[in-house]
Amino acid sequence: MPVLICTWLLAQLATVATADAGDVAELEILGFSQDGGVFAFEEFGVQDGSGFPYANRYYIDTSGDSFLKDTPIRVRLDDEAATLDQARLQARQKGEAIVGQAELAANRGITAGFNAITELSADPYR
Fold first, then answer.
1. Backbone angles phi, psi at 81, to 5 degrees
2. pTM for the full model?
3. What is the reported pLDDT for 23?
4. Burial 27-56, CB ≥16 within 10 A → b, else e
């Protein structure tokens, strides 16, 4: 009898689908234009479910606190064989027409404060 129960339990466990974590984008601060008029950052990841890699670049006019024309730049590669690096490269190439990567890298600034998405105890309004 115990062998039968163990066999049944193993069969049940074998049919349980594994759960994957939801899609959570990574964030990278790209930097500022040389004059400080533009701030840029990128979010990227792999979509949960489809497995498609994506990269979004945001370019913000710091004087008006608004997106620059033709931004954000959104790239999603609808191919499970595509890599995250490929999606990020395409987004970066499109962004070169707005502010060059070298200029952003030279003016990275500092991150003065940041609450990780996993930090549940933080007050989101502070």
1. -85, -15
2. 0.72
3. 61
4. eeebbbbeeeebbbbbbbbbeeeeebbbbb
